[in-house]
Amino acid sequence: MFYEFKKIEEKWQKKWDKEKAYRSLPDPKRKKFYLLEMFPYPSGKIHMGHVRNYTIGDVASRFKMLQGYNVMHPMGFDAFGQPAENAAIKNKTKPDLWTHKCIKDMEQELKKMGFSYDWEREISTCEPSYYKWNQWIFLKMFERGLAYKKASAVNWCSSCSTTLANEEVIDGACWRCHTKVEQKDLEQWYLKITEYKEKLLDDLTQLNEWPERVIAMQNNWIGKSSGVDIYFRLSNSDKIISVFTTRPDTIFGATYIVLAPEHPLVNGLIKGKPQEKEALKFIDKVAKESKVVRASSDVKKEGIFTGSFAVNPVNNEEVPIWIADYVLMEYGTGAIMAVPTHDQRDFLFAKEHNLPMRIVINPTTYDLQLITMREAYEGDGKQVNSGEFDGLTNTEAKNKIANWMEQKKIGKIQTHWRLRDWLISRQRYWGTPIPIIYCEKCGVVPVPYEDLPVELPKDAPFTGEGGNPLGKVKKFVEVKCSKCKARARRETDTMATFFDSSWYFLRFCSPKFNAGPFDVQDAKYWMTVDQYIGGIEHAILHLLYSRFFTKFFQDIKMIDFSEPFQRLLTQGMVLKDKEVMSKSKGNIVDPDSMIKNYGADALRLFILFAAPPETELEWDERGLEGAFKFLNRVWRIQDNLKEKSDPELLKILHKTIKKVGDDFQEFKFNTAIASLMELTNAIYQSGSDKEVFAKLIIMLSPIIPHFAEEAWQQLGNKESIFKTVWPLVDKKLLIEENVTIVIQVNGKVRTKIDVAVSISEDELRKMVLADERLKPWIENKPIRNFIVVPNKLINLVL
């Protein structure tokens, strides 16, 4: 019998769709499981990254169904954003028409993969019924002072003609189009995420089921630093430069200080100095650079002397003042002290510019010598050249010097944070309109709740020229003030799309609810998300913002939890020829063509078997061919079912049930599939009855659902296989029988070992050769023969 995958997959997809097989409703009598993959941007076609991400989620979802959980597994589209505008301009259409066409195409492709989505919960963030609640949330934040507007230098992408948050700048380029980012002064809307910095940091300890790498990335981005603001006085002046350091133990080794080019004192420091002209050129150059690149550790640092000096308050030494690209106004005080002997970045900078150095910490076992130092010594040790603190360990000296500086009023113990407020303004059409009106009389006026949503006009012009199309729609811009009814103008900036995705997981709980962003009671049942799956690239952006919104909703008493995602899995990318798949590289593999040639189930099986979920997966069509052959091999088992299975096969079956169940729980799908292949081999060796085959099919069903449904039906079952339960393990069949084996060397008994009856010959050989008791007889001697009498004796012939 041949597995007719096209006919079978089409049959079951139609049946699931017609019967709404995966519809989920709250049921207080059942334990819920909310599984969610990060929803996609509707580009029009799914790619292999989507296939991998959503297949991983689908297996977990179906496994939980078989375990008896009430599973919610929704899908939607993160539909706003710049690419739709660009596509609209290129194809001479409107962003909404383009986006809805792409959504329709992607829905069909996702259904072809057999994913168990509850399509009745589908949401699209570009619909007014969704973004109305973006605006509602914004107004709630505005009421509490968490949404505000200010003028500042921002990251600007000239290609997208819009601003970017710091988190959206990757290696100095726009995260979406990779154009080099510049700095530009604009008035922008921000969300005060810094109000939640302590909670965002402290609550990381709750996330025990998140990857350590993601926790570290969030921790570093929030960036809490405890240290001292040290007051350096300008030479020949009473003006103070406040310098922040986390290493007060090295203050006696500070031989110069460095300011950010944007520091308010810089212009005064360079004025009239011989260095003024070059310094101004340098400041202008740095202003065009991304702050992310400036702070990067793997980019060479540049700087220039201001011509001015300051006084180190702990020893009254005069030190030069420099400006450099690696110092940012956003961190600390915008000024640092440089200790070249004990900070590698300062060491390289000092060597480059021939600046002085002084050792103030020696290792405990030897003394450092400036002349022989090839790098900074950043370890612990004893204080030297540090006045009254000489001889102390530097860990003792940190607190003592900090307290001493506070007493002398030459410094203050402080905490600084890296996290900055979130810039949400975007100068583009295809996003949520910010619900604000500007009135000459009343000032900044929020749109009344009853007037929401502020809808995007359908007739905005799309030419790709002249900035934001919203500003050109007169009937959108010109409005009456909601307070005084005088002529006013509407805000034309729209929200960053990360706003939309910061709470969508809550909307899925009640997607048709029209009295608020979500139904509080439904959210109480479904939340938190039990398993969240997505790419590591969202470790800072999306995950941090989602945590922020959740804490805000908790504060306004809409939810009673503080973290949205219980467990997080970050899947690896799909590569071809060791490169990430992309159109520009010409190495795209179209999932649709693979489905046509091999079927969705074979593609799912290959994607899961080829590599563990967290690691990169190298595409190889030969593996897909192998998956297809395996499906046909399992399919043919039904042709030769016998009355009763052998006892040894039952043991293998129950070990497999235990192993596969444990592996599914830990997302070890590749090893689970390997175990199922071993069970299939065992069935071919000894034959199988209907019961063993049925349990094999149940275990395979989360991976290959169309195949499993058809095989289950052919076994005479009327209901879906996903209405059954995961097989129970018979623990009695897991107990291993042991046997004692005599070990001989050249025919003489030397020792005995106890092993499981089922041990393989390879495993037995390894165990014997590793046995310490045999070393006196076999060490350094070649083994000419390894004679095995099964379950009785081994003779090593030397």
Give a topology summary.
Layout: H1 5-19, E1 32-37, H2 48-66, E2 70-72, H3 82-91, H4 95-112, H5 128-143, E3 147-157, E4 162-164, E5 169-170, E6 173-174, E7 182-191, H6 197-202, H7 212-222, E8 224-234, E9 240-245, E10 256-259, H8 266-270, H9 276-287, H10 291-295, E11 303-312, E12 317-324, E13 335-338, H11 344-353, E14 361-362, E15 382-383, H12 394-407, E16 411-417, E17 422-423, E18 425-426, E19 436-439, E20 443-446, H13 474-477, E21 478-480, E22 487-490, E23 494-495, H14 497-500, H15 504-507, H16 520-526, E24 531-535, H17 541-555, E25 568-571, E26 574-576, E27 579-580, H18 591-598, H19 600-609, E28 617-618, H20 621-636, H21 647-665, H22 669-686, H23 690-700, H24 705-714, E29 738-745, E30 748-756, H25 761-769, H26 775-778, E31 785-789, E32 793-797
Helix pairs in contact: 1-24, 3-4, 18-19, 19-20, 21-22, 21-23, 23-24
Describe this protein with a few key phrases.
single chain; 798 residues; alpha+beta; 32 strands
Low-confidence stretches: none
Helix content: 25-40%
Label the overall shape.
globular
| β-strand amount | 15-25%
Distance between the termini: 52 Å
Chain oligomer state: single chain
| Number of extended strands | 32
Protein structure class: alpha+beta
For the CA atoms, what is the radius of gyration? 33 Å
Calculate the mean pLDDT score and round it.
92
Count every helix, treating DSSP H or I runs of 4 or more residues as helices. Answer: 26
Q: Major sheet, described briefly? A: 7 strands, mixed
